[in-house]
Amino acid sequence: MCDIIWCKKEVGGKPCNTVNYLDPYTFWNWEGKVNCAECKTVYYIHMIQGFNYKGPEERPGEKPDTSPLYADKPLEGYRNYYPGVEGRTRPYQCLPRHIYLGKADMVKFSIRGKPLRGWRPQPPSAGIAGQFPYKWDIQKLSPEVWQEYQEKIKKGEVKEW
Length: 161
Ligand SMILES: [Zn+2]
Hints:
Elements: E1 3-7, E2 10-11, E3 14-15, E4 18-22, H1 24-27, E5 30-35, E6 42-48, E7 51-58, E8 70-73, E9 79-81, E10 107-109, E11 115-118, H2 138-141, H3 143-154
Antiparallel strand pairs: 1-4, 2-3, 4-8, 5-6, 6-7, 8-9, 10-11
């Protein structure tokens, strides 16, 4: 689901009536200026958690920070602009904005302090796809994690429950 800017700017005596789609990954928490794909009117918006907190407000003469990914005209048979139309829509790069690109948490120990294998790189001795067949001989195969584990035991950070 995404928010839209339904552009009502008068162009050549009739409203623009273009729906500019604010794709959620890009605009979820976003403040800036975005253009209408059709008439290129620049709108300021401030979105917080997907909610349009401020705007759209017209900003005549200002440059947009970005463009919608897609826009169409429901009143004209859904004539549309696909992604990547120069000066109108943004190219589709299959990626959310960098701040949403996240990084997996590397977990070496469970909440009870027991060793886990949710980290990388796994040692080459782990074999294909990091599978230690049947038994993970942690002391031999991951000596640093074993060392850390011993420290945790000493500090009383390993619990059964
Ligand atoms: Zn427009």
